[in-house]
Amino acid sequence: MSLAQNEERLVRECEELSALEGLSDWLQDGSFGQDRNGLVCWSFTLLTKDRRVPLRMVFPVLFPDLPPFVVPADDTITLSQHQYGAGGELCLQYRSDNWHPDCNSTDVVRSAKALIEATPANDAVSDVESAHPTDLPTVLAAYPLRFMLPPKTADLLRVRLAGRATELRLTVEHRLGTMETQVARVASIGHDQGLRVPADGPGVGGKWVRGVLYRLPGIQKIPDLTAHDAEEQLFFLLPYWLRAWINKHESTLVVLSNGRQEVLFRVWYADNDRKIDLFLTFAPPQAKERRIHGLTFRKSSVCIIGAGSLGSKVAASLAREGVGQFMLLDNDVLWTDNLVRNELDELDVGHHKAMSLQHRLLRINPNVLVSALGMSLTSQSTVQNISKLGEIVSSCDLVIDTTADSSVFRMAAAICTQKRKPLVWARVYAGGIGGLVARSVPNEDPAPMIAASQLQAWCDAKGEAPPEGEQRNYGLHEEGQEQPLFASDGDVGAIGSRLVRHALDVLSPPEMRIHPEPAYFVGLRKGWIFEHPFDTHPVVYSSNAGWGDGEAGDNGLSSEKVLDQLGVNYGP
């Protein structure tokens, strides 16, 4: 239907609404206008047996492909449980999931009339069954104050002694959007020897707040939370001595439990007037393992060298895949111009990347173990760091080099060879043309430096070196360009995702691997050896030499043995 036809349809429907008002004794005060968003709307009053209900019908921009919707004229009231929050849209018989061209706006008005008539005045609970189940996100959208209470945390609250108060620590996370939302979670219960920390507790983030839990004596009914004076009823369910203690504080979070149900409310004072804010208590959906082999990697330990654009993406993805332990190495600081490709954000600017990425991984999965070191592997302190890096590599199952720095790679390769640990690395080529992902696994592939030389020989045979570009920045100067062409966030992400898969393959049994070959040159656009996007060239190494005869954990050269051979007396 053309735009002109849509406008004709809307005019016709407006005329039909006016005609319906003239023929009905249950419609009054109809008038057309625009709402605050500039949409055509029809304001009207619906008459029932015992009340007058001012409403407003709004025609969306995509009408008639989408139906008009009806909201209360007063955007602060709730007319029915079949409504998306106070002042929100009524859930009527005609919705976007069943709207079709034969329906019209007069049908929507009649549906609103049927819902209002089935809802007793001052009750907002009708006998009309829901046409579709209300999901948790939809319910939460109407509540800016939320108390997330997982089942294991609730069980810990319910075993407290009846008639007693228990100290709580909670986290409250604020978010600003169309409205300010606050999500409270229990961090710990009790204190000193009786302290309990819920296994499904507060995660990472949020402001720590002191609170109190009061366990009602016996299974008492907690008031209906939709009642007008529910907040005051909740406060006076507390014993006098606890109310007196709360009155001494400017603000207190209180969890009230009857052994089957919990309620959170905040008591605060403004100009000596008591205010009570009620939180909606809800249980999150049961977590499901959505990773293919998530449990396989939970005990794996990965050392990631470099927390830049590539390293940050790889670390975040591995955390989502279920890798349980990380060691992050990077001495660089995040600056604003790094944000175009880094997993970190504006809150991390001015902080060291490794430490910021540590916090990022904990927010992805609070159960991971993450250590971060601001260690430089290319500065004058490199020699002092070799021993520490060797200790780190010895304790890890896999090392990943994401720096694209030849000096760092050489050091990582030497230590991994000495400690007989697998090394995985990647390169993102200039301008985002493509990249390389490669591995070196003891007893399967040649040692890292030999593998790198074989990859170089493979490139030499093509007659043209890969476009490395400006070190660390993936920039490429092309003819006629004043500014270099840089690899985009998507380009780095594409190579990063293949590097993650390569790393997971190394951590997996051979029969579970996705990448059958040890190295791949992956094209993202036409250029160099790539004829088209996703043009991929696998490389097979020619041997698995170079690992030597040492055992895993070998400490390398023995200074004592060398000095003995030279006849040098090194004793005291």
Helix content bin: 25-40%
Question: How does the overall form come out from the CA principal axes?
Answer: flat
Strand percentage lies at 15-25%
DSSP E strands, number: 22
Query: Ranges with pLDDT <50 over ≥5 residues?
Result: none
Tell me the span between the first and last alpha carbons.
96 Å
Biggest sheet: strands side by side, in what order? Answer: 11-10-9-8-6-7-5-12
Radius of gyration: 33 Å
Kindly name the structural category: alpha/beta
Task: Report the average pLDDT across residues.
Answer: 86
Question: How would a textbook summarize the main sheet?
Answer: 8 strands, mixed
Number of helices: 13
What does this structure look like?
- The protein has 572 residues and is an alpha/beta fold.
- It has 13 helices and 22 strands.
- It has helices spanning 3-23, 105-117, 136-140, 151-158, 230-236, 240-247, 309-321, 353-364, 382-395, 406-419, 448-461, 489-507, 559-566, and strands spanning 27-34, 40-47, 52-58, 69-72, 145-148, 165-176, 180-189, 207-215, 251-257, 262-270, 273-278, 280-282, 301-305, 325-329, 369-373, 398-401, 423-428, 434-440, 475-476, 485-486, 519-523, 536-539.
- An 8-stranded mixed sheet has the order 11-10-9-8-6-7-5-12.
- Strand 14, helix 8 (353-364) and strand 15 (369-373) form a beta-alpha-beta unit.
- Helix 7 runs parallel beside helix 8 and helix 7 (309-321) packs across helix 12 (489-507).
- It is flat, with a radius of gyration of 33 Å.
